[in-house]
Amino acid sequence: MIINPFRQIAQSSEAVLLEQFASLRTQIPLMYALMTVNAAFLAFATYGDVPNSHSIGGAVVLCLIVAIRAIVWIARPATAVSAAKIRRYLRGTIVASVLLSGAFGGWGLLLLSETDPSRSAAIALYVFVGAISCCYCLQAFPVAGWFVLLFGALPVTIKLLLSKDWYLVATGVDFLVAGGVILRSLANSHTGFVQLLQSRIEMSSLIAALKRSQEHYRYSVELNPQIPWLSDAGGALTELSPRWCELTGISLRDGLGWGWLQVVHPDDLEDLQIAWLAALNQEHGEPADARYRLRLTDGSFRWFRARAFPRRGEDGKVIAWYGNLEDIDDQVVAELALQESEERYRLASQAANDIIWDLSLERNHIDWSSAAATVLGYPGMLMGTTRDWWVERIHPEDREQVLTKLSSALRAGLSHWVEEFRAIAANGAELHLISHGYVVRDGEGKPTRVIGSLQDVTRQKLYEAKLEWAAHYDALTELPNRVMFNERLEAALKQAEETGRKALLVVLDIDRFKAINDDWGHDAGDALLQEVASRLRRMLPEGSTAARLGGDEFAIILPDIKPGSAVELVVEQLLSDIMGPAKFEGRQFDISVSAGAALGLADGRTTREMHKSADLALYAAKKDGVGRLRWFRNELREAARRETLMLHDARTALSEDRIIPYYQPKICLRTGACVGFEALLRWHHRYGLRPPASIAAALEDPGLSVQLTDRMLDRVIGDVLYWRDIGVDVGLVAINGSAGDFRQGDFADRILGRLSKAGLPASIIELEVTETVFVSQHVKNVEDILNSLSQAGATIALDDFGTGYASLTHLKQFPVDTIKIDRSFISRTGKAQPEDNAIVRAVIGLAKSLGISTVAEGIETPEQAARLAKKGCDLGQGFLFGRPMPASKVADVLTFWDPTSVRAVIDGRSAL
What is the tens place of the pLDDT at every residue in 540-550? Predict the structure, then answer.
């Protein structure tokens, strides 16, 4: 160990190192303190006998080094020190012990050599005792102690042995003997220290293992979801898990013995006592097993299972019972639910008339429940049938499928199988059945029985078929609906793409359908739709599709159009066959349709593109009039884009309040007086003022046209109020009504309500209506609205007379006060157009005979004004008399208006 002291450090266990380190932290500072004391005494004892540098100087240097080393040890942490650090500390301690003890021994030898010989023994004894005391302080680290004794005392001892004084030699021999004893004692002390430490480590391991075992047992009892218990041979509980208290609220002391019975459900108590006593009284002491309910802390009951096993003594008698209590409430509830479910299924099967069957594979025999005879109609099934008999009743088309499915289930080891098939009832009817089967197998996995049920789903199948039909067909016309239409059109386009041929789509609307529906009732409208559908089915070529897309909109798909086919003639003939008279409840109405056609793949490659193209063509056809057909052209798409832009501009103008009225004067051709104005729509665009033609599509839109009319009404009424406030009489102000205004029945209320709110009479307003409104689908609404306005005092003017379809009947039917002659007739009067002159003359004459005034639009020359005045026309309007102007200029115009000058222009005597 002395030869290789570092091996001891390297081979020491971590526990030994830790213990050594703990001891050395107190022993080494003590050793350094003793060395300091010894150095001080030596310095004092030799003071004056040796040079001061040797006595005092040597002591000071030695004490300073010792103090530094002591501080280093004291500063080292007491805990959380790794074994590697301790080994480093110990190696440093060995080196320090050699150096410091060597320094101490050398210093002592120097003092011994210089002092008086009579004091040599005393000096040597000081050095030897100091070395021994330091050595004893290192009992936990004997290697260092040996070095301290060796290098600290050996120099002085050798000096004594080599002296010629037998007294000093004897003292040196004593030092050698004492050093050997001390070294032997250190070795034995260290061995005992290591053994004691090893014993302590082993004991700590045993104690720790015991604690872990106790803790494991404690937690296994406390955390165990089950409740362990122990009873004596007589059945009285002697030990019980703490969970018993948490579960039942009964203390352990009250639960021991037979106290636990107090929380057993009363209905289970007697049976439990009988079962427990029976287990206790068995000669062989078989395990006990019982299920019962316990009352919990909250007063509720839960199911538990108690199982106990006997422990026997050397004589074979039971000396104790070891058991546990397991919560099985969920299991019992599930069992009860299963029993209830099975009973419910049995009752439900009887109520639902489900057939229960049991097939014995060994006997090839099937037993049937009573519902079999009821559902299938074979009374003999109640006595059971063979498997072959039943197979013959399965529909021939499904028979192989059913047998294959059953064979696969039996071979593959499946336990359940489900199959849907048809069977032939006793009356020959086909029944749709769903069979649920469960395969019963023996211990070797071989199937022995198949048990299951048959459910009659025939009605459900019929219902599903109806739902499927309803999902793809229109209920009223029995034509394919929009869903099937899209599927058929997609298929036609795909076929056209594959074959290089074309597919034709025709979308059509019934003309005046809403008028018929409103005037004759919904039954008439439905009859009209059914008649159109019937004609489509009769006239449609084979392989084509006719569908109702909704409302009065229908579609025709003609797939696989060969190149060069006269498809236009085919479509025209189809539409011609659809149109014609029809009767409803003895009354006759004419069926007329407008249609738009598109060719795929030229006009669209998808269903959406095709439908959109056909819709654009239909929209253009309806603009042309009733009973028209239009084919899609790219120009229609551009027209649609323009209309979309118009609608956008109109909405923007409304939202940003950029709609304003401009006023054009109306002149009495007899007197030259200004008798009123027509309010013409204008709107501010970022590029300047725009006329209504720039948003013409909005004027035909049902929603926007109403908003535009309302905005114009509000502005006109506001202007009239302003003029009245400043004392200007503008006469009659005309406003234009759109077809959209008459679609709603509240147009008259909208006008009269605004006038009433403003405190203005209805007589200041003239409503101009175009001929197309009179022949629209809302004739009843038009008549009611115009009558309401006329009765309130408003004037009704028929605008653009002669360009539409108005008839004398309409002049008689509606309360028309004024006829406005369209500018197209006025511009051609006097230009070698006798027809136009005749028309103007006839209109003026007709109006006079009916007591209706006339207004000529678009007068631009004095000659036109003179001829109209000569023909008896009442009023004139046009650029000759004044262009449309903003409201701010109307007052000035009226202020400086000179009827005489205007009349002179009309007479040709001057110019404006």
Answer: 888 889 999 98
Residue 806: predicted pLDDT: 53
Cα gap 193→196, rounded to integer Å:
5
Contacts of 617 (CB under 8 A, 6+ apart): 507, 595, 596, 597, 598, 630, 631, 632, 633, 636
Written as one string, the DSSP assignment of 41-73 is: HHHHHTBTTB-HIIIIIHHHHHHHHHHHHHHHH
For residue 7, name the pLDDT band (cuts at 50, 70, 90): low
Q: Is the pTM of this model over 0.70?
A: no
**What percent of the chain shows pLDDT beyond 70?**
86
Q: Which residues contact 157 (CB under 8 A, 6 or more apart)?
A: 124, 128, 172, 175, 176, 179
655 neighbors 648 (Cβ within 8 angstroms) = no
The candidate with the shortest Cα–Cα distance to 589, out of 477, 511, 479, is: 511
Q: Which residue carries 């002669």 as its tokens?
A: 802
Task: Write the CB contacts of 381 (distance below 8 Å, at least 6 apart in sequence).
Answer: 368, 372, 373
The two three-digit tokens of residue 211, written as one number: 């604690």
pLDDT beyond 90 at 854: yes
Total Cβ atoms within 10 A of residue 873: 26
Range with the poorest average pLDDT among 177-186, 462-471, 570-579:
177-186
**pLDDT tens digits, 834-850:** 777 888 888 888 889 88
Burial of 911 (0-12, 13-18, 19+ CB in 10 A): exposed
Most confident of 33-42, 681-690, 820-829: 681-690
Stretch (H or E) spanning 430: strand 430-441
- Which residues is 355 bridged to in the sheet? 454
Q: Which residues contact 508 (CB under 8 A, 6 or more apart)?
A: 553, 554, 555, 556, 575, 578, 593, 594, 595, 596, 618
Q: How confident is the model at residue 1 (pLDDT cuts 50, 70, 90)?
A: very low
CA torsion 873→877→880→886, rounded to 10°? 160
Asked which of 78-87, 376-385, 593-602, 855-864 is least confident by mean pLDDT, the reply is 78-87
CA angle 603, 606, 609 (to 5 degrees): 50
Cα 582 to Cα 382, 520, 532, 587, 589, distances in angstroms: 61, 14, 10, 8, 5
Per-residue pLDDT band for 522 (boundaries 50, 70, 90) equals confident
Q: What is the CA radius of gyration of the chain?
A: 61
Sequence-distant (≥ 6) Cβ neighbours of residue 765 within 8 angstroms: 732, 733, 734, 735, 751, 755, 789, 794, 795
Q: Let me know: does 559 contact 495? Beta carbons within 8 Å.
A: yes
Tally of CB atoms within 10 A around 13: 13
Q: Smallest Cα–Cα separation from 472: which of 548, 526, 560, 559?
A: 548
Distance, CA of 571 to CA of 404 (rounded, Å): 53
Average pLDDT of span 287-296: 87
Count Cβ atoms below 10 Å from residue 48 Cβ, excluding itself: 9
- Count of Cβ atoms closer than 10 Å to residue 744 Cβ: 14
Q: Amino acid identity, residue 392?
A: E
Burial (CB count within 10 angstroms: exposed 0-12, middle 13-18, buried 19+), residue 408: exposed
Please check whether residue 769 is in contact with residue 801, taking contact to mean a CB–CB distance below 8 angstroms: no
Contact assessment for residue 247 and residue 294, using Cβ atoms and an 8 Å cutoff: yes
Residue 604 is which amino acid? G
Rounded Cα gap, residues 532 and 524, in angstroms: 12
Q: How many CB atoms lie within 10 A of CB 199?
A: 10
> Who contacts 673 (Cβ-Cβ below 8 Å, separation ≥6)?
667, 897, 899, 902
d(CA 12, CA 83): 10
In three-state secondary structure terms, 304 is strand
Report the distance separating Cα 2 and Cα 143, nearest Å: 7
